């Protein structure tokens, strides 16, 4: 929801804007295809949630598909975003409170529980929501993904595996103006559903990077952390803690095919697939976290794992060995006591009971020990109360829970996000079923990552604990590893020039204690290259060197940037491409004595007007004046301009006008400004502004055609009265301005075309003359 203006409301204002849920259309349907094949028709649609039960256990009775959401709820910390029927809002409030308010608002009375859900919210609660329940330290790096992601679907298909019956539910949200349209909504939704499932989808095979997986922790780091947990155990801080590591690799292709592949390999009870827009969740969990059916609730913690035997005899022996394990019995009993205590916080006194303990459950590849704890909710307690009292699950945190979570945060380097959070549904009629998100992968930004861990106790062997994490991730790793491809075959691997050599761009590194990183003590230049022709290089290098001398009182680095750029173009195979090349020089302080960080990067460039499909750019005025003498230079301290650009984007504009402290015009966040009136070119005057390389060339072209150049202060309130306002920078050349703060700017046709033709033509001719004289050797780099 970034980049758009969203109304921020309090919860009462939000609820007034939401529709009501007055009706649910229900019908029995005949399914002629496997459930996962029907779900495949919706797998590419944002908001699709599939809950697939793969085993014959008593917790694996239903398959559920949720699709075509009319409500979306996501949160980050205590900011909750709601999108409902095309309207977007945000609420600054605890996300659990918002979910409770939505459940109250859409509550359905007197719905039979013959099916687990008729209407409600589907999706995930990430482990990181623990910070909204308890005051805990937060020292891990973030994925940037939502803490919570829930959808209210307009299509819910429920299949009862026991009876073979399937029911289609269509909740109909209505407001006062659309009550009479209920039948039309149902008809349209039914038609959409049945047409959708008739069409098969061609899917792209998935693959991963040839380099395989990398972990968030090295083996020595993991073992040191386990030893540290054992120290906490000996000191009496905890009795057990669940510790994990995250594995990551590049991922290309179809996430739903991965889901189907994993389901075929190991069909566990709580398989789930979530299409959450920019990321997808694939879960193969065997563990129920909590379930609610009216006032009755349960949890089913798992502790203890052993491989299935290769023969019937070995299978029986392995199962018997697990049930006799003193260590696994102690761990499970400890977690059962913890969960009994959690349930007791919201249930009737005396209603909590362990109805089964240490039950041996068989899965495709392993046995697990499972216990069942049941209770009855106290009057006045809700689904959300039950969730908060138990979240996150004790089996994947430790005992005592809060201290274990503190230690987890101290020792794990990245936030868990979905790992050990919960996936499933919470209905509008007092039912809920959530799994523990273990053996769960996230696909995001052409990457796939998943975490595996285990419970650490007093007598744990660090080496064996490390190996256990590899064993637990085996199914997912094997499913993915068989699809490895060379990166060159799947995705272009960019090269960069860094400190004198060509390397993979994603391997470029700068010290975190360097002045360049910490204070922005560095400079950069952005240069246009077309089919090997480098435009205005000498002017860019001159500006770079002059700025270095003025800011740091040092001789600039002695680099032949022309040779650097030529090598970079060759290494990337960009000889016939249009490029944006960035040169970067910054202060560095390494123990080896290195004082500078030097780099050059190249990316393919599509002209901004072509990308936007526009004939010019729309501008808005940034309300915060720039007051820094650093504006004279193109420094790495670029946050002000980045924020100005974000300000413009949030207001559906392309560039932000930067003003001086006296409220006169200076430039935009990426370009110089000029205006043309009759035969005069007017340049805004500023005490401090970057001397534009491209602007200098444009003024030379216009001066040669008889234009006078005038530099003057332009009050921002008068600027939109000027005609022929033009922006210039190295990549765009000259581009006309369409509007300023919504007001149209008059433009004479042909001015920018004339400038750009001369601008690049002049440089191109000069470049060719120099190119004929240059040495062909590139030994410098």
From TrEMBL:
Domain Anthranilate synthase component I N-terminal: 35-163
GO MF annotations, alphabetized: 4-amino-4-deoxychorismate synthase activity
GO annotation terms (biological process): folic acid-containing compound biosynthetic process; L-tryptophan biosynthetic process
Top-level taxon of origin: Bacteria
Record's keyword terms, sorted: Transferase
Matching Pfam families: Aminotran_4, Anth_synt_I_N, Chorismate_bind
Keyword Translocase carried by entry: no
Name listed for the protein in its UniProt record: aminodeoxychorismate synthase
Record organism: Desulfobacula phenolica
């Amino acid at each position: 929801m970034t980049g758009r203006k969203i109304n921020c409301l309090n919860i009462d204002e939000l609820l007034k804007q939401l529709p009501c849920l007055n009706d649910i259309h229900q019908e029995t349907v005949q399914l002629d295809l496997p459930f996962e094949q029907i779900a495949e028709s919706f797998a590419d649609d944002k908001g699709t949630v599939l809950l697939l039960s793969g085993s014959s256990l008593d917790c694996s009775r239903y398959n559920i598909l949720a699709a075509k959401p009319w409500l979306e709820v996501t949160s980050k910390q205590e900011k909750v975003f709601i999108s409902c029927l095309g309207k977007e809002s945000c609420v600054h409030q605890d996300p659990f409170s918002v979910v409770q308010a939505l459940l109250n608002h859409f509550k359905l009375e007197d719905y039979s529980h013959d099916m687990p859900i008729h209407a409600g919210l589907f999706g995930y609660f990430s482990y990181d929501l623990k910070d909204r329940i308890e005051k805990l330290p937060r020292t891990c790096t973030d994925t940037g993904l939502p803490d919570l992601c829930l959808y209210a679907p307009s299509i819910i298909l429920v299949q009862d595996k026991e009876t073979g019956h399937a029911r289609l539910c269509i909740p109909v949200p209505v407001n006062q103006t659309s009550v009479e349209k209920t039948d039309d909504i149902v008809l349209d939704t039914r038609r959409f559903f049945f047409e959708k499932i008739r069409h098969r989808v061609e899917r792209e095979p998935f693959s991963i990077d040839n380099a395989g997986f990398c972990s968030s922790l090295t083996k020595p780091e993991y073992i040191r952390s386990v030893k540290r947990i054992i120290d906490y155990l000996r000191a009496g801080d905890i009795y057990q803690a669940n510790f994990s590591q995250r594995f990551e690799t590049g991922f290309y292709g179809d996430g739903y095919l991965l889901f189907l592949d994993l389901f075929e390999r190991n069909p566990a009870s709580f398989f789930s697939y979530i299409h959450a827009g920019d990321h997808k969740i694939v879960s193969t969990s065997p563990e129920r976290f909590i379930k609610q059916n009216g006032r009755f609730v349960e949890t089913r913690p798992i502790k203890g794992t052993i491989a299935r035997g290769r023969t019937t005899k070995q299978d029986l022996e392995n199962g018997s060995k697990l049930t006799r394990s003193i260590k696994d019995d102690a761990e499970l009993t400890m977690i059962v006591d913890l969960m009994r205590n959690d349930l007791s916080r919201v249930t009737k006194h005396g209603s909590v009971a362990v109805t089964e303990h240490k039950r041996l459950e068989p899965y495709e590849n392993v046995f697990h020990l499972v216990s069942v704890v049941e209770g009855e909710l106290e009057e006045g307690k809700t689904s959300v109360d039950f969730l908060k009292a138990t979240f996150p699950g004790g089996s994947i945190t430790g005992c005592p829970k809060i201290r274990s979570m503190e230690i987890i945060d101290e020792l794990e380097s990245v936030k868990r996000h979905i790992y050990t959070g919960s996936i499933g549904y919470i209905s509008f009629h007092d039912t809920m079923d959530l799994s523990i998100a273990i053996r769960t992968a996230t696909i995001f930004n052409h990457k796939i990552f998943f975490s595996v861990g285990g419970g650490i106790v007093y007598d744990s062997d660090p080496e064996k604990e490390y190996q256990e994490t590899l064993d637990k991730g085996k199914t997912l790793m094997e499913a993915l590893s068989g699809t490895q491809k060379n990166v060159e075959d799947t995705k272009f691997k960019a090269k960069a020039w860094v400190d004198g050599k060509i390397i993979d761009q994603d391997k470029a590194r700068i010290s975190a204690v360097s002045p360049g990183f910490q204070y922005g003590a560095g400079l950069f230049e952005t240069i246009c290259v077309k089919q090997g022709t480098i435009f205005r290089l000498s002017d860019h290098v001159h500006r770079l060197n002059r700025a270095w001398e003025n800011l740091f009182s040092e001789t600039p680095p002695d680099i032949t940037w022309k040779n650097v750029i030529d090598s970079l173009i060759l290494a990337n195979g960009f000889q016939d491409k249009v490029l944006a090349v960035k040169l970067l020089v910054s202060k560095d302080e390494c123990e080896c004595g290195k004082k500078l960080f030097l780099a050059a990067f190249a990316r393919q460039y599509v002209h901004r007007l072509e990308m936007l499909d526009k004939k010019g750019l729309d501008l808005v005025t940034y309300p915060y004046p720039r007051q820094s003498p650093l504006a004279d230079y193109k420094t790495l301290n670029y946050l002000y301009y980045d924020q100005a650009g974000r300000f413009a984007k949030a207001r559906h504009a392309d560039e932000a006008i930067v003003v001086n402290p006296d409220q006169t015009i200076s430039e935009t966040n990426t370009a110089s400004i000029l205006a043309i009136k009759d035969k005069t070119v007017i340049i805004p005057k500023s005490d401090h502004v970057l001397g534009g390389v491209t602007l200098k060339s444009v003024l030379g072209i216009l001066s040669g055609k008889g234009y006078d150049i005038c530099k003057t202060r332009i009050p921002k309130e008068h600027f939109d009265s000027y005609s022929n306002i033009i922006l210039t920078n190295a990549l765009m050349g000259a581009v006309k301005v369409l509007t300023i703060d919504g007001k149209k700017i008059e433009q004479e046709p042909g001015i920018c075309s004339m400038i750009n033709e001369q601008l690049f033509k002049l440089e191109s001719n000069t470049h060719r003359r120099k190119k004929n004289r240059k040495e062909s050797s590139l030994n410098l780099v």
